[in-house]
Amino acid sequence: MTDSPLMAEVLAAARAADFASFTAADARAALERETLRPADLAALLSPAALSLLEDMARRARAATIKYFGNAVALFTPLYIANYCENECVYCGFNCRNKIRRGRLSPEEMAAEMENIASTGLKEILLLTGESRRQSGVDYIGAAVAMARRYFTVGVEIYPLDTAEYAYLHEQGADFVSVYQETYDPEIYAAVHRRGPKRAYAYRFQAQERALRGGMRGVAVGALLGLGDYRRDALAAGLHAFLLQKHYPHAEISFSVPRLRPYARDTLKEGRAVFGHPAGRGVGERELLQVMLAFRLFMPFAGITISTRERAGFRDHVLGLCATKISAGVTVGVGGRALAEKGDGQFEISDPRGVGAMRAAIRARGLQPVFRDHLYV
Ligand code: SF4
User: Fold this and answer.
1) What is 305-318 written as a DSSP string?
2) What CATH number does the domain located at 6-369 have?
3) Residue 333's closest CA among 142, 126, 116?
4) How far apart are the first and last CA of the chain?
5) Best of 85, 87, 89, 130 for a ligand 1 pocket test (most atoms within 8 Å of beta carbon)
6) What is the number of the ligand 1 atom nearest to the C-alpha of 91?
7) What is the atom index within ligand 1 of the atom nearest the CA of 94?
């Protein structure tokens, strides 16, 4: 792709932002605007806006109810392979990590999917590590076709060409998540030491290629804590905003992962050992600020909250700003119907199953939604 102006615009705006220059009055003015501009998003992400969290939460809640009602969508991830050709310093699947690697056979996938379907879930996110050699597009396509018999299917895999996204869409996938990890090109180059993922621009443009390939929706996000989280959140917000502007039919959503301990050296230790990645701390208060700012900036965009966060925090953001939540999560390869075939990507915080998650949503006066659209 050579015809997209999005990347230059996002990078220029993120680079230029001076978060320390915003006052509480600037943040309040942004909060009171009916339709927020990109500069308002920067104001709401600034340190000055932290004193307005209560007000931001009140307005975010009203916006969430206006666009999503009481609905909270449920889904679960299924890792079908954990081979990877990249050396990302913060991830358990890093190709230099000596962890158990594996990928599911068609029979094993079927068993895992049957197990997930029996919990009542109707939406699945298929994940792999990023290895075209070990989990090629055909392999992923076969998994998508199988999953489509039971579920609405999204994929979180390595970035593809437009024609490859079109192929996965034909197989039944209609949603693509790709996280830029950090939008700062220098930090990006430093934490992605080797592998195809070093191609920053190719990754940045993945959502556009997915939409051009026919996908219904895409997710954007940064791994908060890798770089300056305010700047990364601003860039992710602008990325989503420009995607929506250029592809108005698309369903855009945010994810807000924070750095977590990741698996390493399982073979040496004989069990999963979790190391702590180096990164700038992002507390729950700061994470909440980012989520509220996203909600106010793009009130109609979905926000997913992952099991990287503890149960209490996840429950707290439901209804305020988050509209989608995972349940019954495992982050190793398989691990539901079968013994885990490969080690997990990171350590989860909230192990609740579908029944417990559904009860937690109801307890907050919200409605768990297993499928929010039908194929015709
Ligand atoms: S973050 Fe993705 S690309 Fe990087 S090591 Fe992990 S699975 Fe591989």
Assistant:
1) E-TTS-HHHHHHHB
2) 3.20.20.70
3) 126
4) 32
5) 130
6) 6
7) 5
Stated length of the chain = 376
Binding pocket residue ranges, ligand 1, CB within 6 Å: 84, 86, 88, 91, 93-94, 129-130, 197
pLDDT in tens, 208-224: 999 999 999 999 999 99
Structure tokens at 172: 């039944």
Confidence tier at 344 by pLDDT (50, 70, 90): confident
Between helices 137-148 and 162-171, what is the axis angle to 10°?
Answer: 30
With a CB cutoff of 8 Å and minimum separation 6, the contacts of 339 are none
What is the atom index within ligand 1 of the atom nearest the CA of 82? 7
Where helices occur in the chain by DSSP H, the ranges are 6-16, 24-32, 38-45, 53-68, 106-118, 137-148, 162-171, 185-191, 200-204, 206-212, 229-246, 266-269, 284-297, 311-317, 354-363
φ, ψ of residue 274 to 5 degrees: the values are: -105, 125
Please tell me the distance from the alpha carbon of residue 301 to that of residue 285, in angstroms, as a whole number. 21
DSSP 3-state assignment of 175? strand
For residues 334-340, average pLDDT: 91
What mean pLDDT do residues 321-329 have?
A: 96
What gap in Å lies between CA 148 and CA 171, rounded to an integer? 8
- Residue with the smallest CA separation from ligand 1 atom 7 is 129
What are the structural domain ranges in the chain?
A: 6-369
Cα gap 159→192, rounded to integer Å? 15
User: Which residues neighbour 77 within 8 Å (Cβ) at sequence distance 6 or greater?
Assistant: 124, 125, 126, 127, 156, 326, 329, 331
Structure tokens, 339: 């013994």
pTM, 2 dp = 0.94
- Calculated CA dihedral for residues 127, 180, 305, 323, nearest 10 degrees: -100
